[in-house]
Amino acid sequence: MKTVTLDLDQINVRKTRVFPRDPNAAVAHDLRDELFELEAKGEIIVQRVPEPYIQVQTKFGRVKKIPIEHTWHHKSCGQCGHIPGYTTAIFWLHRQLGLDYIDPTDQTSCTGWNYYASATSNAVAQAAVMMRNFAAAYETGYFPTIHCGTSFGHYKECREQLIKHQDLRDGVRRVLDKLGKPLVIPEEIVHYSEWIHAMRHEIAQRQVFDLSHITACVHPACHYHKIVPEDAIYDWEVFGGQRTATVTGLVQALGATAADYSTWFDCCGFGFRHVLVQRDFTRSFAVQRKIQVMIMEANPDVVITHDTGCVTTLDKSQFSGKAHDYKVGVPVISDAQLAALAMGAHPFRVLQMHWHSSDWRPLMQKIGIDWEYYWQEFQEDLAAIKRGDKAGVTWQDSDTPIRTQEHVLARVPSSAAAFSKEFSMSQRLTTPVGE
Amino acid sequence: MAYRDNDKYADVPQELKQKLFDEVKADERYDDYLYGCYECGICVSACPSARFYDYSPRVIAQTMAREDLNRFYEILADDIWNCAQCFSCVRCPRQNNPGGLVTLIREVAVRNGLKETREVLQGYSRVIYKVMLKGNQVSPDMLRPDFFPDWGPWVQEFSANMREWRLAIPTDTLRGVTDAAWKTDPKTLRELYYIWYSTGNLELIQEVDPGLHGLIAEVVEEELAETEWAD
Amino acid sequence: MSSHRVLIIGGGPAGLTAARHVSDLGFHATLIEKQAQLGGTPIASHYAALTHGFRDAEDAFRDLIHQVTDDKQIDVRLNSRVVGCEGRVGNFNVHVANGAGAETLDAGAIIVATGFEHFDPARETQIYNYYTYPDVITLADMELMLKSKTVTRRSNGALPERVCFIQCVGSRDRQIGNEYCSKVCCGVASKQAIEIKQLVPTAKLFIFYIDMRMYGYWENEIYWPAQEKYKVNYIKGIVTEVIQKGDKLLVRGEDTTMGRPMEVTMDLVVLSVGMEPSAGTKEIAHALQLKQNKYGFIEVPHESLDPTVTSTPGIFVAGAAAGPKDLDDTMSMAGLAALRAMAAVRGAN
């Protein structure tokens, strides 16, 4: 054998090749084909994604439609119960963007958390709970947007099983017939964080705080990208399309640094049952495999995630880590809260930061938010409520972004409300996907 | 067929082990969750519980494929409760779903009211009560310092201010609600109760916690009496 | 008008061999090659040594190429591609396009030898970050380095202390849709491990595998020496993630014989990418209206007993266009395809 001199940079060239996902070459079949078949047979109604919608690309290339408005918000029990600023931020963003939505009272949880925690349910009951909620959304004419990652994943599993198994469909139909409700499956199952991802440039246009000096670690939620993985959003501009673009896309659009860390794929340690009744696992995993690794490798100012359990676990588990001298002490918020924060949401009336236990004050300071001023304002709200002078904090108290003239970015238009929905959206809709 | 000679549950009759095993396999999801396993270890590598416990999603898949009844019974009684149900294991290149198998096996354990299962679920019953009657897994009033001492002084601060904090939320469906995650229509809850009632979910609770079942059934039956749905 | 010409599509190992055999037995062959050079993937991708016998690939193929180009009975058309075809066995009209335009060639029989391409790691569902980290490379990239006798880290040019191979990338995977085994990667990885050890004796080598498929003499010629003489570590268990940690790569997997999750650092990670039908194979299936199997390879209806027959009488297939093949099988298949093509021409006349 002889030595040949070859240009080894050829390898580097090979490695820069762009490899767009080809929807036609997608391995996973498009479930919607089967949904439409069932609809044609008269078995179900397929609720269509309302226009205008934004097209995004999923893991293997299928194009997914994300509705911009006329959405029915399937809330999350963990968010509403323990992180109310999460839910409130999602609605606040819709209100700021002038988008039509419903916050329903005709909604139950998916009960999936309980199912994954204790299995004290069965396939028919779980599918029936989902279909009751979908029917409730359909009756309003609004399209469901799912706030919880577990509901999102669980519903997609239920949908797959319903499509596959006639007897499951018949079982669910018997229940819903009795309740006088139709069998409706939405054309797409949409997670709110996909809406945020799709709207991230609109959100960035309304940004009032500069985040370019902020480093964030992103925790992608297991039930978002691991259950039915082919349905999660991927983008070649985010980590080379090698992991879901949701959340990281927003962090980047807002100008913050999305810092990598070696355990990004690991779960947070929530465990469904563990977080409630076996927290030794939850605490250890959250601190040792997630928070401490993030701090040692990336030293983030904030951890951003997009699901109920992840925010709770990563936030609340840090206290116990302190006792054992682990490296902890970083605030954990959702992508919705980060987006709202960047757009000037009130830290307490909207973001409800007082429900978070890991110290968020340094983050506020670094961004340039005089949190003490707003905390004082909020304390006055609480005092008025206590005295009975105020029934509660309302949207009227919360809709206006906070004033922080010295931090307003030059690129923000003088009137944020002047944005032309039609223009920017039609522009997006005509952007071909996958080219 | 025994693959191992140290059988932890030697006192459980083989016929019962076989019956429970068959019950798992009879689930219509079973064939979607287990194809075959060539021991690549991808599921274990991705599994959080494998790092913390003596737990292996690969062993779950192999045990089911081999029909190893004794090991299956150990999984049924013990291993399944270590799984975090994060579904990291569905990266399996064979498209097995060990986490999904765990869900099916857990369902069988619950449905048959195994002694070990009842013990595991003991501390959890207040959650079942909440989810079945309120339609929410958790509510603010569950954040009590005695349940969450490891969450630090924040829980005390929250507890002392819960009422005002809840009223200080602009989202209309959340404002002031402390015993559920959000305000739900009474009709919606009755529809949920009918789902529990008509799909056998209520009887299921009887198997794991008869006392809890009594409490839930009383409310469900009373509410359903207001409707024309129940037989 | 019937034709005595055998038209061969693809100038790689199978096409060259088929052309040579056709000529040896006195028939005229036309060899159509899309690229500007002959030799196919082994030459275009700069393969170093052949797996069986460690012979230098360029030397080996130079001889074969010369036998074809020096042969007056073989008409070689470079930079050409088949765009359509009419007729039947004994009398095909094949439309060939090149830079100058298009022409129609007559042929009595056709041999498709359009080969494979390396699986693109971008489609991998495990997280290997080929397009993110410079020190994650493929078997084909490593061949290029071995051919240059320079095995270095792409990130900093340093000699690697620890190198690992991850087997079955893009093969044996239902999620990706490639359920088949690509046959050669176990042998190629082990061959490369030996070559790396020869070039960098201080390097520690690891191969993460599901099953080592070292057929026949590959066992004693490659697998055992790799383990016994070159101390390559074979670990049963596949890596799920490759993560940059400082200036090292952290690989995660399960050591399945130990039954525990494993995390080790590496300097260079080589992905043993498998075979997929080449773009040319898919194009030709369309142009000749040949049936493809579910993976896109040319379908062979009776593979065991009649391995070169396609869905169309008079059109035969040789080599990896019909599915993953090692070189030995490819060459045998090319000989058989040549024989079958000539018999078809003779039978039709």
What attributes does this structure have?
heterotrimer; B: mainly alpha; Fumarate Reductase Iron-sulfur Protein, Chain B, domain 2; 2 domains; 0% strand; C: 349 residues; alpha/beta; FAD/NAD(P)-binding domain; five-stranded parallel β-sheet; 18 strands; elongated
How are the strands of the largest sheet of chain C arranged? 3-2-1-7-18
The termini of chain B sit apart by 46 Å
Q: Give the overall silhouette of chain B.
A: globular
Q: What radius of gyration of chain B results from the CA coordinates?
A: 21 Å
- Say which CATH homologous superfamily of the largest domain in chain C is assigned: FAD/NAD(P)-binding domain
Explain how this protein is built.
The complex is a heterotrimer of chains A (435), B (231) and C (349). Chain A has 435 residues and is α/β, with parallel strands linked by helices. Chain A has 2 domains: 48-193, Glutathione S-transferase Yfyf (Class Pi), Chain A, domain 2 (Up-down Bundle); 208-399, 3-Layer(aba) Sandwich (Rossmann fold), CATH 3.40.50.11810. Helices cover 45% and strands 10% of the residues of chain A. Chain A has a 4-stranded parallel beta sheet with strand order 5-4-6-8. In chain A, strands 10-9-11-12 form a 4-stranded parallel beta sheet. Chain A has a two-stranded parallel ribbon with strand order 1-7. The model of chain A is unreliable at 405-435 (pLDDT under 50). Chain B is mostly helical and 231 residues long. Chain B has 2 domains: 14-112, Alpha-helical ferredoxin (Fumarate Reductase Iron-sulfur Protein, Chain B, domain 2, Orthogonal Bundle), CATH 1.10.1060; 123-224, no CATH class. The longest helix of chain B has 15 residues, at 153-167. Chain B is globular and about 60 Å long. Chain B has 13 helices and no strands. Chain B has helices spanning 14-26, 30-33, 42-46, 48-52, 57-66, 69-77, 98-111, 115-121, 125-134, 153-167, 186-198, 201-208, 210-224. In chain C, helix 1 (13-24) packs parallel to helix 3 (57-69). Chain C contains 8 helices and 18 strands. In chain C, a hairpin with a 2-residue loop joins strand 13 and strand 14 (248-255). In chain C, the strands form 5 sheets. A 5-stranded parallel beta sheet of chain C has the order 3-2-1-7-18, with helices on one face. Chain C has a 5-stranded parallel beta sheet with strand order 9-16-10-11-12. Chain C has a 3-stranded antiparallel beta sheet with strand order 4-5-6. Chains in contact: A-B, A-C, B-C. The interface between A and B is large, with 95 and 80 residues.
